[in-house]
């Protein structure tokens, strides 16, 4: 059985996985709010940059200004809008699938034992499935379900992995 820190992380992953599965539309709404808020902050930063470089380069300042305004309008339009988020999410769905695949591959190399390798393999399989579903399914419920399943599987795997079983970077001899 794993030590305390992994058990807590495992419990947190399982709880988050169950929440995503139980409330998929809330999860999509939350994602649209967070994405919209992040884009609004990016737009504000670009506007600040626009005024900061005005004295040195008016052309770059205008580009920053235009990008900042586009980001503000896009962020406000995305903030809390499930429809806009679903429309724009096709790129992000592929990105999330690739992220699951990469994190699964990393788990295959970073975790020892059958449960660690199994969780990594599950991440790769679910990432591939996520990309396939992203191509055909417009219903965010199924995609949220896959993320929830991945969190639960990884959380359960953390119960059986002790921190000493995690692969450490070897220190080269001097």
UniProtKB/TrEMBL annotation:
Statement: the UniProt record of this protein carries the keyword Transmembrane: yes
Domain of life (superkingdom): Archaea
InterPro entries, per the entry: DUF308_memb
The keyword Transmembrane appears for this protein: yes
Transmembrane domains' residue ranges: 7-27, 33-55, 62-85, 91-110, 119-136, 142-161
Alphabetically ordered keywords of this record: Membrane, Transmembrane, Transmembrane helix
Protein's recorded name: DUF308 domain-containing protein
Organism: Methanobacterium alkalithermotolerans
Organism taxonomic ancestry: Archaea, Methanobacteriati, Methanobacteriota, Methanomada group, Methanobacteria
């Amino acid at each position: 059985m794993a030590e305390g820190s992994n058990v807590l992380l495992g419990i947190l992953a399982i709880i988050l996985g169950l929440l995503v599965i139980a409330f998929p539309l809330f999860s999509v709404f939350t994602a649209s709010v967070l994405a919209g808020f992040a884009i609004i902050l990016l737009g504000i930063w670009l506007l600040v940059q626009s005024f900061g470089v005005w004295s040195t380069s008016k052309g770059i300042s205008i580009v920053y200004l235009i990008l900042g305004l586009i980001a503000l309008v896009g962020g406000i339009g995305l903030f809390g809008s499930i429809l806009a988020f679903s429309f724009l999410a096709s790129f992000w769905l592929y990105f999330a699938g690739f992220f699951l695949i990469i994190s699964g591959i990393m788990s295959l190399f970073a975790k020892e034992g059958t449960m660690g390798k199994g969780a990594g393999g599950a991440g790769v399989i679910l990432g591939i499935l996520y990309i396939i579903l992203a191509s055909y399914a417009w219903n965010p419920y199924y995609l949220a379900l896959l993320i929830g399943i991945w969190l639960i599987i990884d959380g359960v795997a953390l119960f059986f992995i002790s921190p000493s079983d995690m692969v450490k970077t070897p220190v080269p001899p001097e």
